[in-house]
Design the sequence.
């Protein structure tokens, strides 16, 4: 199985290209972005040495589905998906923060809480909470957007406004959109027997209008629990059955890797790569309720280039 880990296209009207951790973003003129969801996989802000076949296709198709399902809440950047691994959209100036919303205490928030923190990003967390416990109401814990190779950093609403990263008025719009999108995502997940635990949203601005950008409600940007058995597992203090990239992080941690200096990524055998790919397919089918159809190609990059070129004509 082939995986696409690198792209190097040159489209007509291309003005720049940005290679992110997972996506390669090509700017066309001043108004369009072509975002290629590669098969790269990152964890702890580190790009792992091998790609995961079909991962880009799955993420792109999940994001497209949720973008289409939330256009009544806020405008989003998507114009078209000319290839299973590609979204073309409106080029916005992105805000330098990511809006992370959490419905439950787990992941990095739980790790901080367990270490004694009772405030995350300026949001106070009550004493006596347990791992995977539901918050009385979802909380927003923003982070700064890191450059490649750097870690995202927690930041409070007050700091964001004080530093002028986002104006007070616009931040309040981002908050409103974030909560409404999370509510919609929660409702859609519940219909699939899932709990949307936490997720992140990115926003940008074009001609004075705020748009939702990038991916939404994918297993790379979100964590899901299975609702069936959640209460029982929580009462017993057992780990929840998850639909997220957390299984990759757990495998890395078990093998002594957390992205810290001097640590080495464990060997990604062919069997491990296939196992991760299969888990992503499981995620896709649970989240969307649709069977995943693998887009097989002898040359993935060539197919993508042709489909984008045809679209841009």
Sequence:
């Amino acid at each position: 199985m082939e995986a696409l880990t690198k792209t190097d296209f040159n489209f007509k009207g291309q003005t720049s290209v940005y290679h992110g951790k997972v996506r390669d973003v090509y700017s066309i003129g001043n108004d369009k972005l072509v975002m290629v969801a590669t098969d790269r996989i990152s964890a702890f802000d580190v790009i792992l040495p091998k790609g995961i076949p079909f991962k880009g296709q799955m993420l792109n198709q999940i994001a497209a589905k949720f973008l289409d399902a939330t256009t009544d809440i806020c405008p989003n950047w998507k114009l078209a998906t000319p290839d299973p691994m590609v979204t073309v959209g409106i080029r916005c100036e992105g805000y330098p923060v990511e809006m992370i919303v959490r419905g439950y205490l787990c992941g990095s928030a739980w790790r901080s809480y367990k270490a004694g923190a009772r405030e995350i990003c300026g949001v106070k967390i009550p004493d006596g909470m347990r791992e995977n416990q539901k918050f009385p109401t979802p909380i927003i814990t923003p982070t700064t957007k890191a450059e490649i190779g750097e870690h995202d950093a927690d930041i409070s609403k007050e700091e964001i406004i004080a530093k002028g990263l986002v104006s007070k008025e616009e931040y309040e719009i981002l908050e409103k959109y974030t909560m409404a999108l999370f509510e919609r995502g929660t409702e859609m997940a519940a219909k699939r027997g899932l709990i949307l635990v936490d997720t992140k949203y990115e926003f940008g601005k074009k001609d004075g209008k705020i748009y939702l950008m990038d991916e939404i409600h994918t297993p790379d940007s979100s964590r899901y629990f299975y609702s069936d058995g959640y209460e029982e597992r929580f009462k017993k203090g057992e780990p929840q059955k998850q639909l997220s990239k957390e299984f990759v992080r757990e495998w890395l941690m078990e093998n002594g890797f957390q992205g810290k200096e001097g640590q080495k990524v464990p060997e990604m055998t062919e069997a491990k790569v296939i196992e991760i790919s299969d888990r992503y397919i499981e995620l896709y089918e649970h989240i969307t309720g649709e069977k995943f159809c693998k887009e097989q190609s002898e040359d993935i990059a060539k197919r993508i280039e042709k489909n984008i070129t045809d679209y841009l004509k």
Notes: The mean pLDDT is 94. The longest helix spans residues 168-191.
